[in-house]
Every structure is written in C-alpha cells, then in structure tokens.
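FYI - complex with 3-methyl-2-oxobutanoic acid, inputs then prediction.
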Amino acid sequence: MNERKKVTIRTLYDKAAKGEPISWLTCYDYPTAYFQEEAGVDMILVGDSLGMTMLGYDGTLPVTMNDMIRHTQAVRRGAPNVFLVGDMPYMSYQPSNETAIRNAGRFMAEANCDAIKLEGGGEMADRIHAIKQAGIPAIGHLGLTPQSVAALGGFRVQGRGALQAKQIMDDAKTLEEAGAVAILLEMVPDRVTKMITERTDNCLILSLGSGPEAHGQLLIYHDMFGLYPKFKPRMAKVFGNAGEVILNGLKQYVTEVGSKEFPQPENWFTIKDEEYNELKGLLED
Ligand code: KIV
C-alpha cells in the first residue's frame, strides 16, 4: 500500500489557501476505500446514499446508524489516511442536540471518523454548534438535501430564484458562524456557489453539481463508474463504465460454466497420486 500522510482538517485548509481543489468521493466498502486511498483522494464521505447504492432502497430514509457505522468502519480499514466523513442518517440528529452529539460521537469512537456531515440550513445551526462544542468537526449540507426531498418537491436544482439563492447564502453564513468546518452545496447554481465561497472566511465550501468555484468537488462513486443501474444524475461525469465491464464478465461466466469452458486446470486443486490411491484403498477396506 502507498503510505501517505494522514489528511487532516489542517491539510484541507492549507490546500484551499493555496487554491488547490480538494477531491472528495463517496465510498461504502473496504476494497473501494483501498483504491480511493491509493489514488490519493483527499476526503471520503460514507453517505447515507448507501441506502440506495448498497442496500437497494428507493431513498435514504430507511438507513440506520448501525448501517452507517458498519460501512464506515469497513471504509476506514481500507483508507486509514483519508479525511473520513460519516453522514448522519435520517433522525439521527433532528430530534435534539443530545441525540446529535451521541450519534456524531459514535462515528468518531466506533468508526474513527474525522468529521460528520448533516443536512439542513439555519435551523440546524444549533446542532452544528452543539456537535462542535463536543469536540467533533461538523460539515453542513445545503441546496438539494436528499433527506428532505419530499419537502423540496423532488431532486431539483436549489437556488435558481434570487430569494431562494439568498436563503442558501444566509444559511451558509449561519452554519459557518455556528462552527461548521465545511459546507457541501448540492445542486446549487454555479454563480451562487461562487458568491458563497467568496463570502466565507473560516469554512470550506465543497460542490456537488454546484460548479467549479468552490474549494473542492464531491462525486458519488457509483455515478462515476456506471454502478447504479436505476439512473445517472446529469451532473455526474462517468470516468469509466465498470458496471458494463462487470455485467459483460458475469454474462461470460454464465456462458463458460454452461459450455464447460470454465473451470480449467489452473482454477482447481489436485491430490497427489499416492494420496489418491491410499484414499481409494481406505474406501475399499
Ligand atoms: O449520502 C450522500 O452520499 C450524500 C451526498 C448526496 C452528498 O449526502
């Protein structure tokens, strides 16, 4: 394994200060984490999108803290030096500050995370502040927030109207003042992202489909490699069609088993003649 220095919040702030964009990807399992670490990805988000990408639900709401912890632990084993962010699932922080601190603490203690992320605007400032006071770095999430997709009227760009854009800008300022170490903007128009980035002093702004004028970019791993069969969001760039490679390989496997082309001698193990003959002798006794 390619040993690299641990990525810390300081590493990320230093990159931002030098104008070097931060790379951030979702990840939910050990082998993918291993490859992401090898590739030099700065940050990993174990998103509650695992409800869809890994568990086959239609949305993120059924995902539990135990689901999140199990996957986050696997990711940390694969990527020991990445800046690891645990995504707070539905109702793990909304009820109260105490619930939020307790569950954020589980990500830190049980999965060795570097930060947690939670969705919501100014109404979540109190939660961000409480988590920060507990010594846990917290990342906000504005714009399209999948846990509130019903209230937002579907998966659509947020902040296209001036009033809504102003609200997102106000929310970003409120979360920064509450102590968020970073804010993810999802599906926010590029020029709104630029204004938010220019107006924040102590907080990283990260973009998912929100344009280049942020301190870094996030992509959903499954969208990058054609691994989510149900749809591909417009904003996602496909860097390789692993889904197609896997499907073709699987079809070939089925064909080769059927035609007895698989297995070949290199795919099985043998027993020495003397042991085999002794075995036959044992059976004859
Ligand atoms: O769960 C997730 O992967 C997320 C992204 C959509 C930002 O929160």
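Residues 242-259 form the longest helix (18 residues). Residues 26, 45, 47-49, 87, 146, 184, 186, 208, 220 surround 3-methyl-2-oxobutanoic acid (CB under 6 Å).
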